[in-house]
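Batch job 17 of 40 flagged for manual review because the log was empty.
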Amino acid sequence: MQKKWYRLDTAALIFPAIKQHNWNNVFRVSADLTEEIDPSVLQTAVINLMPRFPSFYVRLRRGLFWNYLEELEHPPTVREDYAYPLTFMGSREMSSCCLRVLYYKNRIAAEFFHSLSDGTGGSIYLRTLAGEYLRIKNGISIDYDDVVLDPSDRPKVYELEDSFSKNAGKVAGRELGRSAYRLSGTPEPGDYKHLITAVTDAELLHAKSREYGGTVTAFLAAVMLETVIEMQQAKVPSGRERPVRITIPVNMRKLFGSRTLRNFVLTLNLGVDPRTGPYTLKELVGILTNQLALKATKQNMAAEIASNTGLQKNFLIRMIPLPLKQFAMRIGYASYGEHLGCINISNLGVVDCPKSVKDHLGRIEFIIGPQQSYPNNCSVVTFKGKTYINMIRRIKESELERIFLSKLVKLGIPISAESNDSGGGL
């Protein structure tokens, strides 16, 4: 029987081209259960979910003109979690499977090569996996919905669609601007990544964000913006500062009514030019809130999609052999791909699930690895009244985390910090 394959969606096309020997775009979602994981039961759950999530059980293949994803004959083998989150997923591994399922004590984690999906799709898989594990292990009757899917159902057509191609605008529009300030530091040897998880009360954080006139995303981005501005001022002479912008991924499913499990996120770069003068935190929250409202519209995002899909649809470009395409994409991405931002803050928002699953989960986390030219990254998720702020870096210096978290504490937001470093990491 011929194997089924999937075209890479517009957002996914760039990732295979720009991956390096020690970097690729991988993210993690994890759930802590109230009991220790039985690996054999987890493996059975992974097997049972294979027909329900066909676009996740795939490997990366090279074609003559484009990379593509090919369905697997066999599911991945669950592995005990090791080392640190988001260890390098090399070409050899991705040619076998682009999804990892890991366990450690009471934790289940799924790590995705970003060409498969985004945080929303990944979190639906994770919650469904946890539900199936609990059903098998404890005989629990699961209340299925749109975030914990019924493994016995057939995948829906809309779950597998490329929502980028479907919703591209007629007129292309691309975000332009002066290159932003770049965070830097001393690279860690090998692939080691420091991870600091700041845990705080979700309602308190929400109330503080409202006090400053913004959403949690706008508030955290403004505190991060203030942090990077201060770091630049300490290192760069006055008048020579670069713009400081926070890269914020926007989930476009609500904008366009999509229910795809594949990628459907675009990023916006929001911020200020410090040369224009000082800003209070309240002013920064207001600026980011207004910029987000102005840019995250259906019309503007459709134009951004059209900018990305236009080249993909061009007949002459489609006929260029893959090695030449990838070379051009690497050059383009190195020059323009991340030049408008300083650091990513990706907020998955409030994650929920049916009580039959929720009662057996202690926490859910979401971690995005550092980008190609961003040595630091930040991802946020809220579950069961707690907000988890995961700050990851591939450099030795912890200045960014120390200043950012100290600011939150000074604003009256108590933080409980955890780290994968034996010394604490701050």
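Reviewer: the log was empty due to a logging misconfiguration, but the result itself is present. The chain has two domains: 5-148+156-163, 194-419. Unflagging and moving on to job 18.
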